[in-house]
Here is the input.
Amino acid sequence: AAPAVCTVTLTIQKSAFPSSGSQPVLANITFGLSPTTLTYSLGNVLLHPAPTYSVGDNNVVVELPQSAVYRGDVFEVRVSSQTSHPVDAFTIKCTSGPGLQISASVDIDQAWEYSQSVFGSDIAVTAFLPPNQAVAGRAAGRTRLFSIRVAVTQAAGMNTNTSVQCSVTSLVTTRGSVRPASVSSSPFPAVAFGMFGSGAAGLLAVEADAVVGVFADVARSELLNTAVVTGVPVRSSMRVITGHASGRVATAAAASCVSTSPTVLGVDPLCAAVTLTGREAAGSTSAAIRVTSEGVSVNVPVIVWHPSSFRISTADDQLSLISSWLNPKDGCRRRYQQTALRVTCSFSNGLVSIPNVDITQTASSHLQANDSTVVSLNGSIATGRAAGSAAILLPSHRASTSPQGSAPLASTVLSVSSQPVSIVGLSITVASSIQVTFNLPAHRYQWTPPAAYSLRVRLHQDINLEGSQAQIIVGVHFSDGQAQVAMRDDGIGLTSLNPSVLTISGDSMVTRRSGSGDLIHASL
Here is the structure.
C-alpha cells in the first residue's frame, strides 16, 4: 500500500475532457473532511482532448502511450492492421530507441503460428494462420496482430524524447500481399500514434518523475511545552510523503524542514520530528513547519501551549516537631510534620490562556529544597528535618544570558519549628476502589477546545461480600489542626478486632464472613 494517510481512486468522467481540437483544461482536485464543509486542494490535473486519427487502408498501426513515461515504467505497444480484407500472414520488425528495452515475449492470439527473434534493440515477428484457421468470418478493418512490452531503463535520459518504430516487411490478406497506396516497395514504415500525434517517427517523451506535491503530518500536532519544567525535550515524529509526476506516492527520499516560528518550536532539519527543548519563549496557534522536497514545499501547522505564571502552594507552610513520634525509617530521628506541595501554571497558545493547570505530577521530581538539612523532598511531599526555613524551588530550563542561569520558575518558603505539636487523634478510611468519571460531549465533533471539562473522582467502600479486599488509609491529626497520612512503616499499628470477620496484612484487609461494628483498630 502507498505510504499515505489514505489512497483514493478518482474516476474522471468523459464529459470533463475537452472536445477534439480544443485546448487542454486545467482541473483542480479537492477533498473534504466530514462532517465539516472545509475542502483542501490536492493539486491540478491537465486534461487533454481525446485524440483522433485516421489511417489509410492496407496499413499497420502502432499504438504508443498517450502520456509521458518515466524510468522504471513498463508499457505496452499494440500493433494492429488496417486492411480491407482479413490478414493471413505478416512479418513486422520493431525497433526501440535510446533508454528503452523491448521484452523478448510477444502477446499474440493463439490461432497464429509465429516465430520471433530479438537482436539488440529490435524484435521481428513473423506469423501466419494455418489452413484450418483460414475460415470465413474473420474481420477486416482494424485488427490487433500482437503486442510487445517495452521497459524504460534506469539509464534513460530524462526530459528528452525517444521512440518505438516498426517496419512492415510483408502484409498478406486473403487477397494477397498488400501495402499502402502511397508505398511502392517493402519494407514500409508502420504508422505510429502517441502523445505527439501520428507518423512514422513513433516518438515518446521520457520525463523526470519529479515531485509535484508534498504531504506532511506530525504525530501530535498540538503540544504542551513541558520541557520548560522538566528539561526533557518534547518530541513528536513527522512523516513526509511525496506525490510524483507519474502518480507514484512514496515516502520522501529527501526532505528538509525549518520552523517558521523558531521561538515557539524547533524541528529536525531532516524532518524526523518537531521538538520543544524548553528554551522557547511562547506558545502559538500559527506556528508551522516548512517542509521542502525537490523544490516543492508545504507548511504543516502545529499548535504549541507554553507555560507561564508558575506557583508552588502548600497545605501547611509551617512544619512543626511532633511530640512522642519517632521516625523508624530515619534512624528513629524525631519526626516533623510533612505537607503536600502543589504546582500550578497557566498554559497559553497565544490566543487563549488556561490558568491554574495542575502540573504537580510532571514537576514533582524536579522540585528542589535549597537546604536539605531543614526540609527533605520525596516527590511532592515535603518533610521537616530540623528547625529553620528552606526555599522550595522549581528550576527553569529556559535559555538565559545570565552567568547564574535562569531564575527559578517558582518558589515558596517552608518554616520548620521546634515547638512541638501533639497527636490528637487517628482516623481510618477504607477504600476498595476509585472511580474516575470524565464528562465529555456526547459527540466527539462537539469538542470546542480549549475548554474546561469536569473530572469526578469517587472513593468506593464496597466490602459487603466475603473475600472483598480494600486498602486501609490512616490519618494522623495534630493539635495545630493539620493532618497527614501515615502507613504501617511509619509506626502505625493495624489490628483486626474480629479476625473471623476480616484479616489485615500490611495496609490492606480481606473480609472473611459477615460482621459489623468496630472491626479495625489503629495505634501509634
Notes: The longest strand covers residues 296-314. The helical segments are 227-230, 360-363.
